[in-house]
Design brief:
The chain has 77 residues and is of the alpha+beta class. It is 42% helix and 13% strand. Helix 2 crosses helix 3 (39-51).
């Protein structure tokens, strides 16, 4: 699985860190501990980043989901 952040050029380095961790399911408390920040600071950074209009896209190969035979990712219609 890959995470892609669209419009990431609008985010600061710290905002990118918080967004990736938060969108990966890490709690604010865990992020705060990992980045040596207060939990309220994590919330502020995350909300500021959200206001800048980033978009998170999760890329999951089809074979991971067992949707295609023989490991083929192309779906023919």
């Amino acid at each position: 699985m890959k995470i892609e952040i669209r419009n990431a050029q609008n985010l600061s380095f710290r905002e990118k860190q918080v967004v990736v961790l938060k969108e990966s399911g890490t709690t604010a408390a865990q992020i705060a501990k990992q980045l040596h920040l207060a939990e309220s600071t994590v919330a502020t950074i995350y909300n500021r980043a959200r206001g800048k209009g980033y978009e998170v896209v999760i890329v999951i190969p089809g074979d991971v989901l067992a949707l295609y035979e023989n490991g083929e990712d192309d779906h023919e219609q």
